[in-house]
DNA sequence: TCAACACTTCATGAGTAATTGAAACGATGG
DNA sequence: CCATCGTTTCAATTACTCATGAAGTGTTGA
């Protein structure tokens, strides 16, 4: 992952609705991995189902899904009259890898906090 | 780290200039760790020095540093007539931890890509 | 082919972020 | 105490993002 892609992904994730969508899609669909169990469970989630879960209008959802897709974080696939969205797990992992190894240059302190849950006494904004 | 904090941090990082500042500050100052070598090297970077490195005006830099500070990603300390900024390594680590474990619920696929560098054949935006 | 369905795109308006230059603030040295 | 340097704050402009509802696109079944 390069910097422009990472910036897109960060901007896409810096939004409550889109973060909620990512949460919904994690574990609800793989992109060709060997962990596939059943077609239905691995297909991702239809746009309508997502809209219901996050309680937003169809057009608003489409806007946010488009932002996530532009950033490469989700992929869309049409099945009949529905469009299924699934998380691009590799892109998420790639972003985290980028933050950790490119931006933070593999800094040991960051890695340690990343594994242990971050700052114990972090102040609120 | 909770969601509002993570959203602030993501928004702060979703900017080329601020990402560049983070890069500059990584490894240039610890916040009380045991890895301290010398005062001068661990003090962080003065605002003027950062402005020179990233080639932006003083006021613009102040704006961006403020955004990073609000997000808890950097900390400021005045020394004489200069203000030194250093990265909050724990906040960076905490953000990455949040992405990995809260958003992605510790998903194995994401973790694997995160350690190995992400998508091998990721398409460009 | 026509109506219904699922979703996307478009047009519009409101809110928020980024940039710029000027002015203000705080610390230092003469 | 005054001039100066380093940095921050302010005001104004521009650009972008978000939200809303209406219109449009593609798919299915009668």
TrEMBL record, chains A, B:
Q: Fetch the SUPFAM superfamilies from UniProt.
A: Winged helix' DNA-binding domain
* Any coiled-coil regions, as ranges: none
Keywords associated with the record: DNA-binding, Transcription, Transcription regulation
Where is the HTH arsR-type domain positioned along the sequence? 1-107
This protein's record includes keyword Protease: no
GO MF annotation terms: DNA binding; DNA-binding transcription factor activity
One Pfam annotation reads HTH_20
Q: Which residues cross the membrane?
A: none
What is the protein name for this chain?
ArsR family transcriptional regulator
